[in-house]
Amino acid sequence: MADSYLDQVADELADLALADQAASGDIGITETIGNLLGASSQTLQEAFLTAVRVRRAEARARALLAEREANNYQDGPAPKAAPLQGLSDEEKEAQLDEEVADLWGGTVKPSPEDEKPEPDPEPSVNMPRRVKR
Asked: What is the pLDDT of residues 44-98, one digit of tens each?
């Protein structure tokens, strides 16, 4: 089955962008190209970003398989999520806390500012009343 023109262009641009990123070390090039494409064609932007994600996922999977082969197919540590991809702010904060804890050999304790108790909600007129029977 022949690829559509959209897929061909997106694949070619993804290959070029990732090659540029590898050569220059500029990790923002794919985002820059994605924004440029999105200004003219959201369809092409989505196809490009999907092609980039597929290639990055493929590279991570191949690296894991190569590592397993090098270790005689023994299970190694579980792979972590790709950096800055698909993580919420809370997950990024938790991941950072884990990395700091690993570096310092302990757990990260929240600062006193983070431990402020939440105030009790003030009763409102529309709150249901509890009826004791």
From this structure: 999 999 999 999 999 999 998 898 888 887 776 666 666 655 566 677 777 777 7
Site of tokens 């972590």: 80
- E strand or H helix at 89: helix 89-104
Distance from C-alpha of 13 to C-alpha of 30, rounded to nearest angstrom: 9
Cα 71 from Cα 2, distance rounded (Å): 39
E strands, 1-133, are none
The pTM (predicted TM-score) of the whole model is 0.56
End-to-end CA distance of the chain: 72
Question: 41, 85, 86: which is closest to 10 by C-alpha?
Answer: 41
73 in the Ramachandran plot: left (φ > 0), alpha (ψ -120 to 50) or beta?
Answer: left
pLDDT tens by residue, 5-33: 999 999 999 999 999 999 999 989 999 99
Nearest to 87 by CA among 76, 99, 96, 77: 96
The distance between the two most distant Cα atoms of the chain, rounded to a whole number of Å, is 75
